[in-house]
Task: inverse folding
């Protein structure tokens, strides 16, 4: 697959989670353009479903959104870590739960026009409760929700978190197909 050729790159910001560059590129179609890119190592999203077919969601304050949101557990993939290992770690840290069965449900780019972040969505089943160990800056409440009302909420626009909407609808579509 053809790739863009980077003619020049300048780093504008380098932080703990991401960096920002401005790049002069020649794209495969021959167009030369300046592109600003947020570089991110990738994230995982976990759709943890219990034996009653309920999904585990978290409620936490999201500064960029300016409010509390219900969303699936998720987090960044650490350097040298596989996506599956990150998913297992994030579920355990944020919720205390572990799962015996894991399956990748989706893989997508969060916003490919300017962001390199990928999202690997995993289905986690056969759950066992444990003790959460969230990071110092995380205050997370958890609750199980039946899948069917979540699907209706996603379809009606009542869920506001993109990764949660994608995962819930993909899970529902897969259940209909299987």
Result:
């Amino acid at each position: 697959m053809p790739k863009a050729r980077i003619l020049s790159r300048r780093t504008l910001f380098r932080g703990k989670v991401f960096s920002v560059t401005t790049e002069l590129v020649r794209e495969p179609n021959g167009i030369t353009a300046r592109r600003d890119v947020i570089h991110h190592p990738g994230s995982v999203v976990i759709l943890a479903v219990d034996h009653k077919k309920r999904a585990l969601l978290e409620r936490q304050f999201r500064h960029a959104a300016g409010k509390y949101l219900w969303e699936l557990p998720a987090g960044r993939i650490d350097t040298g870590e596989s996506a599956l290992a990150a998913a297992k770690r994030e579920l355990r840290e944020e919720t205390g739960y572990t799962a015996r069965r894991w399956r990748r449900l989706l893989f997508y780019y969060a916003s490919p026009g300017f962001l390199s972040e990928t999202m690997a969505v995993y289905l986690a089943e056969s759950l066992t409760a444990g003790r959460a160990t969230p990071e110092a800056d995380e205050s997370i409440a958890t609750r199980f929700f039946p899948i069917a009302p979540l699907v209706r909420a996603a379809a009606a626009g009542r869920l506001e978190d993109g990764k949660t909407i994608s995962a819930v609808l993909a899970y529902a579509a897969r259940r209909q197909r299987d």
